[in-house]
Amino acid sequence: EEILGDNRELADGLRKRLKGSGVFMMNLMSSPGSGKTSLVLRTIRALKNELKIGVIEGDIDSVVDAETVAKEGVPAVQLRTGGFCHLDATMIGKALDAMDLAALDFIIIENVGNLVCPAEFDTGAHLNAMILSVPEGDDKPLKYPLMFSLCNVLLINKIDYLKYASDFNTDLVKERVRALNPGITIIEVSCKTGEGIDRWADWLKNRIREGR
Amino acid sequence: EEILGDNRELADGLRKRLKGSGVFMMNLMSSPGSGKTSLVLRTIRALKNELKIGVIEGDIDSVVDAETVAKEGVPAVQLRTGGFCHLDATMIGKALDAMDLAALDFIIIENVGNLVCPAEFDTGAHLNAMILSVPEGDDKPLKYPLMFSLCNVLLINKIDYLKYASDFNTDLVKERVRALNPGITIIEVSCKTGEGIDRWADWLKNRIREGR
Ligand SMILES: Nc1nc2c(ncn2[C@@H]2O[C@H](COP(=O)(O)OP(=O)(O)OP(=O)(O)O)[C@@H](O)[C@H]2O)c(=O)[nH]1
Ligand SMILES: Nc1nc2c(ncn2[C@@H]2O[C@H](COP(=O)(O)OP(=O)(O)OP(=O)(O)O)[C@@H](O)[C@H]2O)c(=O)[nH]1
Ligand SMILES: [Mg+2]
Ligand SMILES: [Mg+2]
Ligand SMILES: [Zn+2]
Ligand SMILES: [Zn+2]
Predict the structure, then answer these.
(1) Are the CB atoms for B56 and B69 separated by under 8 Å?
(2) pLDDT digits (tens, 9 = 90+) for B106-118
(3) What pLDDT, on a 0 to 100 scale, did the predictor assign at position A2?
(4) Containing H/E element for A58?
């Protein structure tokens, strides 16, 4: 499909440009309210002493997430799509033009809250990450297979809810996800309690070091 | 935008056709895992003795939800979009062709789990309903305003989590939603405990009676 082909070309260009500037970029996706912003905050706090981090916030409307992230003292660019259901390489390119790449090591894109379309549009990132949160239910890999199959890492968030959500079978989720994507890394976390965040931060640091 | 215009025309046609057959149709939307299928089950159990109900299930992939609903003994048609992020009037028209409208009073469409695009595509329904669940957070009306502004009714689901999710401010959600859509009806429910379901069923019964 021609539009996707052009997007892929642009995205490849962004990937090269970032690598040339020594910047590693991660695209973070999930449903609305699964904990993307909370994970961005936890990640910044865990890594800011070792890496210079910038954030690209994508939303249909509102500047809430960019403002929240900016309070951590990192540069944050807010993209407002005005209704468009995903970010693409063109929009990310514009956001990058507004950032000082020479002064950054790591950029996090918080994509629009949507388990469908963002997976189809390459953002130029070096790493595709997604979140599934416990309250959403353990059958999401069956119903939204594309995103689970093309991410490099899945974080199962809100594990502090497990004592309440007895119908969420973590082993079954992992089985379903690995059937779609055998190579994926799966990390269980709670952005609320901090559980699993160290493991996430260590894994991410290694990926960034290898990737740059 | 021409595509939306054609869709609106088709949708108006479906609405008339359904009214002519004495069928009332509701389009139910929300993020993935907010409780659409759970609400469909609760609604069927509350109303099946008074209304003949049919369900149209929309998903990217999988027949899980249609199978779950069919266990209640109601006719259920599963639409699989294969990646398309919303249902539209063309798809709903095909589903209706597969149903015996003369034998039905009320059809529920469970739309694709997505807080963005489904709001833009008229399905031919007489009522647009949406769910926001407590774990998703109370800022969703700010970030996904279109869906909140064009629904007739909002159900706040998973209220059984309120004792645990202390950062969810129900009054603030209502304030934000009414700022976008003063006329909207807001009903708090738990599909898990059954709280609020009677109130929802009564309100819905009245809407169906008025609408047909
Ligand atoms: N209990 C619990 N709540 C969490 C956790 N992580 C995030 N939350 C809550 O979940 C809600 C949504 O979190 P966000 O970080 O805003 O989620 P998001 O994916 O960025 O949401 P959008 O950008 O609106 O799509 C907030 O009320 C958070 O406090 C967690 O690990 N446990
Ligand atoms: N605690 C609690 N859990 C609920 C409630 N309603 C639904 N759930 C759970 O939330 C998860 C998702 O529910 P579903 O009804 O499948 O949600 P859905 O919106 O149909 O999901 P998709 O069709 O996949 O987008 C399941 O594990 C349900 O048991 C509720 O009121 N309280
Ligand atoms: Mg966010
Ligand atoms: Mg469902
Ligand atoms: Zn889309
Ligand atoms: Zn869409």
Answers:
(1) no
(2) 999 999 999 999 9
(3) 62
(4) strand A53-59
DSSP 8-state symbol, B188: E
* Count of domains observed in chain A: 1
The low-confidence residues of chain A, meaning pLDDT below 50, are none
Q: How far apart are the CA of B65 and the centre of ligand 4, in A? A: 5
| Paired tokens of A121 | 């549009």
Q: Please check whether residue A160 lies inside any domain of the structure.
A: yes
Gap between the terminal Cα atoms of chain B: 31
pLDDT digit string (tens) for A186-198?
999 999 999 999 9
Structure tokens at B69: 């609903």
**Could you tell me the residue range of the domain that residue B73 belongs to?**
2-211
Residue A10: inside a domain: yes
The CA distance from B161 to A16, in Å, is: 45
- Beta carbons of A47 and A130 less than 8 angstroms apart: no
Q: Is residue A211 part of a domain?
A: no
Q: How far is the CA of A210 from the centre of ligand 5 (A)?
A: 32
A115: domain CATH number is 3.40.50.300
| Nearest atom, ligand 2, residue B191 CA | 31
Judge: A60–B116 Cβ closer than 8 Å, yes or no.
yes
Q: How confident is the model at residue B163 (pLDDT cuts 50, 70, 90)?
A: very high
pLDDT tens by residue, B7-25: 999 999 999 999 999 999 9
Three-state DSSP state, B120: helix
CB contact under 8 Å between A143 and B117, yes or no, is no
Q: Nearest chain B residue to A147 by CA: give it.
A: B83
CA distance B131 to B43: 14
